[in-house]
Structures are given as structure tokens and as C-alpha cells.
Amino acid sequence: MTQPQKNARSRARAKSPGPGGAADDAFWHFDPAATRILAIDDENNRDMLSRLLSRAGFPVKSASTGTEGLSLLPDWNPDLVVCDVRLPDMSGLEICRNIKNTSGTRHVFVALISSQETSPDSKVAGLGSGADEYITRPINNQELVARILALARIQQTSHALRRSEQRFLTLAQTAPAGITRMDTYGNIVYVNDAWSGITGLSPEHA
């Protein structure tokens, strides 16, 4: 790699948002090890799927039933769940809805995978349940890993944006100056305490 290429790459990495925020992660780059995966698949495919994802650099825990998978959620705290649509005890769509409708896990990304439910209607139903990806088998191992890597990149970017938003709110709320934020229609969507003190209006009446 030439020196100009190295410099360009360094500048690109410096602009990339990191999971911890821009200030302390100026040189952050995508790292599979930063995305925890919970793989829920029947016993015939679970070990193979776990090995593929582990070799790609992901931390992985696996389960062979929906009940077992859901029980692992609190302790493993995954960032991404890869789940078969047809499990011995429940549907992967049911698991997806459970994850997406629970406040503590709705941020978790879900990739549904199936060798039986492969029709367009099945894909629509899966994505409609809240899944972020729907993968059909048979699929080449390299393509499977590539699609999970792509989803993990989106997950890490989403995580970085949430952290950035939290950091902004923390700084804004304690700032001595009045701060407001508006949406694209000019509606005020946020005011800090200093703004309320200056105007005498509560956030609800901004």
C-alpha cells in the first residue's frame, strides 16, 4: 500500500463512528468480535452455523430450541440473533416478535433462516414479524457469512448512532446555555433545562 493510500485510509477511519462515540473511538473500524450472536437452529444445523460464525470472528452462543434460545437472551445479551424459522417447539417468527416487542431487546437485530419456508410470502411474513434479514437455504457458506457480516456492520453503526444520541442528550441537558432541537418541519422535538429556565416553558409546552 502506498503512503497516499495509507493516509486516505487513516482519514476514512478517523471519520467512522465508533460504538463508544466519535471522541474516544476516532479510529474505530468494523470488528466482528464486537457483535455477539445467538444462533438458534435445530441440532442438525446448529453446530455448523456456530462454527461458521465463530470462524468469521463473532462471539457465538447457540441453542437448538426456541425456549432455550429465549432463556439465553438475558445473560448472553446478543446484538444479533440468527434463528431458524422452523424449530422443534416454536416458530422463529414468534421468537422474532418476542425480541422486537420487548423493550430491553427491541434493538437486537434478527436474521431468520430457513430451508423450508422459502416462498416470497414466507419472506414477507418473516420481515413483517420484525426480522432485519431473511436468508433461504441452500446457501453457500461464504455467502451466508458475508450476509451476516453485512448485517453486523449495520448493527454496529446503529449502536454507534444510539451512543452518539445518548452522549448528545447528556451534554445538552447539563449545558448552561439554552438548547433546542427541531425536526425537518420546524417542530421543536427537544429542549434542555436551561432553555426551560430562560423561557419559563416546560418541555411539554415548547
Individual helix count: 7
What's the assembly state of these chains?
single chain
> Can you write the helix and strand succession as a string?
HEHEHEHEHEHEEH
Low-confidence runs of at least 5 consecutive residues:
3-27
The residue-averaged pLDDT reads 84
Radius of gyration: 21 Å
Helix % is: 40-55%
The chain-level structural class is: alpha/beta
Number of strands: 7
Q: Can you list the strand order of the major beta sheet?
A: 2-1-3-4-5
Biggest sheet overview: 5 strands, parallel
Backbone shape: elongated
Strand content: 5-15%
Q: Can you walk me through this structure?
A:
With 206 residues, the chain is of the alpha/beta class. It has helices at 3-15, 43-55, 66-76, 92-100, 120-128, 141-174, 193-199; strands spanning 37-40, 60-63, 80-84, 109-114, 133-136, 180-182, 188-191. The strands form two sheets. The protein has a five-stranded parallel sheet with strand order 2-1-3-4-5, sandwiched between helices. A hairpin with a 5-residue loop joins strand 6 (180-182) and strand 7 (188-191).
